[in-house]
Amino acid sequence: MSGIKNADTSSLRGERNVSEGIQTEAGKQFLRGFDFNQRAILPAVLYAPYAVDTVTGAITIADFNPLQQLRNPQGATHFSMQSAFLNLDFSTAEYDITYSNEVNLPTDSGTATQTLTPSGVPTGSGIQFYFLLIEFFQEVNGVQYPLNNGAFNVLNIVAVR
């Protein structure tokens, strides 16, 4: 956040703030690609290209093949993917967020295009953030249990606008 604050070029030194810095391209760049789990960064888990529709918040992974394009932790039998679209006004702290459906698939599922479309465009103004979440599960006797070691679960800010 200090880097984002320093991107504020309109305020006097000592009065710079995040709400001004995030408005700049340099400020937004600090959060693009940010991984919330340093033990599981997106490029080390997902090897597939994806596209973000900044109007609808949809994230599309064309011709996704989990066997070749996803690094599965040992013991994982399934994975899920979900996206989120957030509007956050840093000056007022007002926000609205919408989520996509959760796609849950076996780790050995075939090639298919996956599209994660949030339920709508979040209301309000501010900076728009687009998130991608990938989680892993192990199925035992028909029940999927989350793998809680955290070494592979990803939450990433894939775009900021």
Structural overview:
This protein is mainly beta and 161 residues long. 14% of the residues lie in helices and 37% in strands. It is built from five helices and nine strands; from the N terminus they run H-H-H-H-E-E-H-E-E-E-E-E-E-E. It has helices spanning 2-6, 18-21, 25-29, 42-45, 66-69, and strands at residues 51-52, 59-64, 78-89, 94-99, 103-106, 112-116, 127-140, 143-146, 154-160. Strands 3, 4, 5, 7, 8 and 9 form a six-stranded antiparallel sheet that branches. A three-stranded antiparallel sheet has the order 1-2-6, with no helix packed on it. The longest helix is centred in the first third of the chain and has 5 residues, at 2-6. The protein is elongated and about 60 Å long. It starts with a helix and ends with a strand.
Q: What is the terminal-to-terminal distance?
A: 17 Å
Number of strands: 9
Globally, the shape reads elongated
Low-confidence stretches: none
Rounded mean pLDDT is: 92
Task: Tell me the major beta sheet.
Answer: 6 strands, antiparallel
Strand content: 35-45%
Write down the Rg: 18 Å
Structural class: mainly beta
Number of helices: 5
The run of helices and strands is: HHHHEEHEEEEEEE
